[in-house]
Design brief:
CATH topology of the largest domain: Aspartate Aminotransferase, domain 2
Distance between the termini: 70 Å
CATH architecture of the largest domain: 3-Layer(aba) Sandwich
Cofactor: pyridoxal 5'-phosphate
CATH class of the largest domain: Alpha Beta
Bound molecules: 4'-deoxy-4'-aminopyridoxal-5'-phosphate
Protein name: Aspartate aminotransferase family protein
Pfam families: Aminotran_3
Family: Belongs to the class-III pyridoxal-phosphate-dependent aminotransferase family.
Largest sheet: 7 strands, mixed
Helix content: 25-40%
GO molecular function: pyridoxal phosphate binding; transaminase activity
Length: about 450
């Protein structure tokens, strides 16, 4: 064996980092993780109250998933898809087809959410081309929204700071407002509001010319950009009907909501919806492997395949190790009945968050589905006036919670209304006692924030 150059692997924790993705200062090194907890290098134990970035759905260190990965690793970790098929990818595609709405039984794998979204957009485009509808290029999305960091996914993302630097390079796609009905102060019913927001899609399609519109992409429950935004029930079917009226494909970005996070395998199920194409990622690899997937209607895929094939692909697509992990993750969700637990613990956590509004009048809204939950802080609940930006509440509260060894996830919203929202999304294995621990730490953190920002506290 060759000698390794003396300094090649020298490294010290205290040396300046060569990575530059970290913003907001350095964090402790992660040492190990198990269940809902993460330990840092100093032995401190954190409750993972956001499952990372809504990723670690079945918790950390699941032995059966690790065993399934080890078994697969002992066989092979890679087989290039143009040379070999692999059983884990076939099996996972079969499972995903069975868990998707009728007719959506064609699966394409990727390594993350952005890649999955790119795949959806490119499939939609090639479907239009296969049908001879060559003018269809506009993909309408919502503002704010988050669909990923790659150029295509960024074009449909509506989140100013992420879009702006690339404005000259990306053809920004047309946007309609996200259905933030909780901000509306008119007297209309929830149902009427839902229809009003959905009808903005019709307005936008008409404005662009229906023959130019390819697809509409939305997060069925909003994620990082809107903070677990749930539209009024009437929204979902109306959007479906409008897409059908104009032959516009409906893409559900279920990267965050999918694989059980909202208490059903897909969030679409809450509204009995059948989109045309679905993107999955986060909870599919669940923090064990990078994995994403697109699930599409067979009658969309078939013409594309017949027309010369899907001009798109990733080297790691359908990687056997990643797919074996994804299969084991879904098996765990069923074996431990984690979707039922998510619905039950999610309802409990949401009611406990609702109760916080009595003590903290600066909590303006609590929302979400299953264990995709969020609350929003405001200066005035009646008018939903946001806290001033320079109060930096979104960063401060996360920091205070971190000091209590609770991890939550926050963003300052964009898109006409700027507010501070916080996602509280523990893994789907969370129990009542974890909810107690989250609430205790969160209450302390909110008390501290109130003191710091001189916000009122009751009792
Ligand atoms: N879509 C949604 C709804 C997301 O929440 C995310 C990630 N936050 C993405 C797409 C992009 O996924 P990734 O970071 O894995 O590329």
């Amino acid at each position: 064996m060759n000698a390794i150059p003396a300094e090649l692997f020298d490294w010290s924790q205290n040396a300046p980092s060569h990575l530059f993705y970290q913003t907001g200062g350095r964090r402790p090194f992660i040492e190990r993780a198990e269940g809902v907890y993460i330990w840092d290098a100093q032995g401190r134990r954190f409750l993972d109250g956001s499952s990372g970035a809504m990723v670690s759905n079945i918790g950390h260190g699941n032995k059966r998933v690790l065993d399934a990965m080890r078994d697969q690793m002992n066989a092979t970790t890679f087989g290039y898809r143009l040379h070999f098929e692999n059983e884990p990818a076939e099996r996972l595609a079969s499972v995903l087809s069975k868990l998707s709405p009728q007719g959506l039984d064609r699966v394409f794998f990727a390594s993350g959410g952005s890649e999955a979204v790119e795949s959806c957009i490119k499939l939609a485009r090639q479907y239009a081309l296969a049908k001879g509808e060559t003018k269809r290029t506009e993909v309408i999305s919502r503002f704010p929204s988050y669909h990923g960091s790659t150029f295509g996914a960024l074009a449909v993302t509506g989140y100013g700071p992420l879009n702006d630097p690339f404005a000259p390079m990306v053809r920004e796609m047309p946007k309609i407002p996200a259905p933030r009905a909780y901000l509306d102060r008119d007297n209309s019913s929830d149902e009427a509001r839902g229809l009003r927001y959905a009808d903005m899609l019709r307005g936008k399609i008409e404005e662009l010319g229906p023959e130019n519109v390819l697809a509409f992409i939305m997060e069925p429950v909003g994620g990082a950009s809107t903070g677990a935004l749930v539209a009024p029930d009437s929204y979902y079917q109306r959007v479906r009907d409008i897409c059908d009226d104009y032959g516009v494909l409906l893409i559900y970005d279920e990267v965050m909501t999918g694989v059980g996070r909202t208490g059903t395998f897909l969030a679409a199920e809450h509204w009995g919806q059948s989109p045309d194409i679905i993107a999955l990622s986060k909870g599919l690899g669940a923090g064990y492997v990078p994995l994403g997937a697109m699930i599409a209607r067979r009658d969309i895929v078939d013409p594309v395949v017949a027309n010369g094939g899907f001009m798109h692909g990733y080297t790691y697509a359908g990687n056997p190790l990643a797919c074996a992990a994804g299969l084991a993750v879904i098996r765990e969700i069923y074996e431990q009945d984690l979707m039922a637990n998510t619905a039950r613990i999610g309802a409990l956590l949401k009611s406990r968050l609702d109760n916080l509004t009595a003590r903290f009048p600066f909590i303006g809204d609590v929302r979400g589905k299953g264990l995709l939950l969020a609350f929003e802080l405001v200066a005035n609940r009646e008018t939903m006036t946001p806290l001033p930006k320079d109060a930096n509440a979104f960063a401060k509260l996360v920091e205070y919670a971190y000091e209590e060894q609770l991890i939550i996830y926050s963003r300052r919203t964009h898109g006409g209304y700027e507010g501070d929202h916080f996602l509280v999304c523990p893994p789907m294995i969370a129990t009542e006692s974890h909810v107690d621990e989250i609430m205790e730490k969160l209450t302390k953190s909110l008390d501290r924030l109130a003191g710091e920002l001189k916000l009122p506290v009751n009792g």
